[in-house]
Amino acid sequence: MSNQPYATAAAGQKEDVDLAVAAATRAFTDGPWPRMKPRQRARVLDQIADAIEAQDARLAELETFDTGLPITQALGQAQRAAENFRFFADLIVAQTDDAYSVPGAQLNYVNRKPVGVAGLITPWNTPFMLESWKLAPALASGCTVVLKPAELTPLSAGLWAQIFRDAGVPDGVFNLVNGLGEEAGDALVKHPDVPLISFTGESSTGQLIFANAAPFLKGLSMELGGKSPAVVFADADLDAAIDSTLFGVFSLNGERCTAGSRILVERAIYDEFLERYAERARNIVVGDPHDPATEVGALVHPEHFEKVMSYVELGKTEGRLLAGGGRPTGLDTGNYVAPTVFADVAPDARIFQEEIFGPVVAITPFDSDDEALALANGVRYGLAAYIWTRDLERAHTFARNVESGMVWLNSHNVRDLRTPFGGVKASGLGHEGGYRSIDFYTHQQAVHITL
Ligand code: NAD
User: Fold this and answer.
1) 126 pocket-lining for ligand 1 (C-beta < 6 Å)
2) Does the beta carbon of 132 sit less than 6 angstroms from any atom of ligand 1?
3) Three-class SS of residue 10?
4) What is the active site of this protein (predicted)?
5) What is the pLDDT of residues 389-433, one digit of tens each?
């Protein structure tokens, strides 16, 4: 917020990663964690969830301080982190694995085994919650872990060690190495004793990790960037669509992987939509992230602020500015960007194609379902899509044809944790969520018996 130094975090080097991996390997090879019954591990995971909830106010405070997220939204992230642990605790206890019999001839069953030391690399947006999305299934599966959080937001990750110790996680199961991506992250990716990497971050970083992990044939799960479309048809519930598309790109400061950062609006309602949307955007409260009245806080870092501002300037040449367009009035220092709305943005514009990761939205009109689909699919990303229409057939047809890992019909944000989470095209590799996460962190060995 003030861009003054407020904490010093360790810059872990390869030697630190080696030590962490050695501890995790010992805990995996000799320790009780991978050998516990699912119910025993689930009890520990439930205690972790309780501990997170018990300090949600402190956690939210840290997260707001470190990331610039509005405090009311940071509170929600702590709740979601706790829920991730409860969910995977329930899942491993309920889990069944297949057995197949060929009567009188053969019996076949599946032996599920944790893969080993999981390397977890996470970004700076909603850091604690995204760490929990990896830690919970990795630990539930019986893996031991080395977590490398984002260098820009190391504070909340410091809470994990105490939470895990208090909950009864054995020593060596959880290891944390703070540090830069190209140092600590790189060493983790290239460590021969880490058989799998779960990564969330930019698509370009994902490509580099993919290449660096290739010689080791590591298991990879990649949750990458997005430029998700929100498509508003003329028959939509316009009030709900406006509420949702504002939330979609201006909540979490726009620093949200699933942000609906391109809004495609049917021509018949285009002008009305623009007028109402821009009016609402101009009234969003930007300010001190700690103030409960704040709706958009400060961006995470001055470099990221500069990047977002460069897109704001570019947008003035690529679209029609309807709201924002720079710093909010009265906030002359700090990483504050006024919620910015560009209309009439052409599909080849950079602000239509590239992930900005800030409170900036591009709006484009369309005349037909086919054109809307072509616009929605006309980017390299494919993470989420939001569709607003009262016509169910159109909604389901569009959902089937849109190139995205997730679709929200007349809704946003809320998802059942059993559903797949992930992107297609440049937005990711593999899907997590529900048993898919457990599958990623476990080997499924087939055992065949001749009767
Ligand atoms: P980033 O790619 O810069 O960094 C992510 C993590 O990777 C950090 O911990 C960083 O230190 C590490 N890293 C960087 N270079 C590395 C290397 N060479 N080897 C190993 N690790 C390395 O991403 P960011 O700026 O922190 O996060 C924002 C991005 O994350 C956006 O693109 C956003 O869309 C994406 N994201 C995606 C999802 C999703 O679920 N798809 C969720 C949140 C964020």
Assistant:
1) no
2) no
3) coil
4) 223
5) 999 999 999 999 999 999 999 999 889 999 999 999 999 999 999
Is the alpha carbon torsion for 204, 206, 209, 210 positive or negative? negative
What is the sign of the dihedral through the CA atoms of 433, 354, 348 and 391? positive
Closest CA to 91 of 133, 140, 52: 140
Q: Are 234 and 340 in contact (CB under 8 A)?
A: no
Residue nearest to atom 18 of ligand 1 (CA): 182
Token readout for 109 is 């069953």
Q: Catalytic pick from 61, 183, 223, 295?
A: 223
Q: How far is CA 259 from the centre of its chain?
A: 10
> Which residue has a Cα nearest atom 8 of ligand 1?
150
Q: How many angstroms separate the alpha carbon of residue 122 from the centre of ligand 1?
A: 6
- The tokens describing 12, both together, are 């872990």
Report the distance separating Cα 353 and Cα 59, nearest Å. 35
One-letter amino acid at 418 equals: R
157 near 131, Cβ under 8 Å? yes
Q: Is the CB of 355 under 6 A from ligand 1?
A: yes
The residue whose two tokens read 């087939």 is 446
pLDDT > 80? residue 171: yes
124 ligand 1 Cβ < 6 A = yes
| pLDDT for the residue numbered 128 | 97
Alpha carbon of 94 to ligand 1 centroid (Å): 33
Rounded distance between C-alpha atoms, residue 421 and residue 80, angstroms: 15
For residues 265 and 362, give the distance between their C-alpha atoms in angstroms, rounded to a whole number: 11
Extended beta strands in 311-373, E state: 320-323, 340-343, 360-366
From the CB of 122, is ligand 1 less than 6 Å away?
Answer: yes
For range 169-176, the mean pLDDT: 98
For the Cβ of 121 lying below 6 angstroms from any atom of ligand 1, the answer is yes
Ligand 1 atom nearest to CA at 123: 26
Q: Indicate the top mutation candidate among 84, 125, 304 to test ligand 1's pocket, ranked by most ligand atoms within 8 A of CB.
A: 125
What ligand 1 atom has the least distance to the C-alpha of 225? 34
CA 316, CA 29: separation in Å to the nearest integer?
A: 58
- As to burial, measured by CB atoms within 10 angstroms (0-12 exposed, 13-18 middle, 19+ buried), residue 80 is middle
The CA–CA distances, whole Å, from 218 to 114, 221, 436 equal 14, 10, 17
Q: How many CA atoms lie within 13 A of 429 on its CB side?
A: 16
Give the H/E segment covering residue 369.
helix 369-377
CA nearest ligand 1 atom 20, residue: 185
pLDDT in tens, 133-170: 999 999 999 999 999 999 999 999 999 999 999 999 99
